[in-house]
Amino acid sequence: MKCNVCKTKMKDATTEIEVLVKGRKVKALNVPAYNCPNCDEIRMDELIEKLVQTYAKGSKEATFDFAEVKPRGVGITLGKK
């Protein structure tokens, strides 16, 4: 993936983001993303953004670790290799 800002090849990274859910802020940690080594732009896949929104809506805590979230019915943990 190339950076939209400077067109440099982006590198795999993780980031944290805050999501507003029914008036409350929920922070997602260790979210898979891409980082531009040249201008520090951060990008996420659309699917990851949707998953963060979904998990934030179901979170009872103010913070959750995306790498520890297990999708229902699937025997994998997201963010782990």
Automatic annotation (TrEMBL):
It comes from the Bacteria. NCBIfam families: YgiT_finger (TIGR03831). This is YgiT-type zinc finger protein. It comes from Enterococcus avium (Streptococcus avium). The lineage of its organism: Bacteria, Bacillati, Bacillota, Bacilli, Lactobacillales.
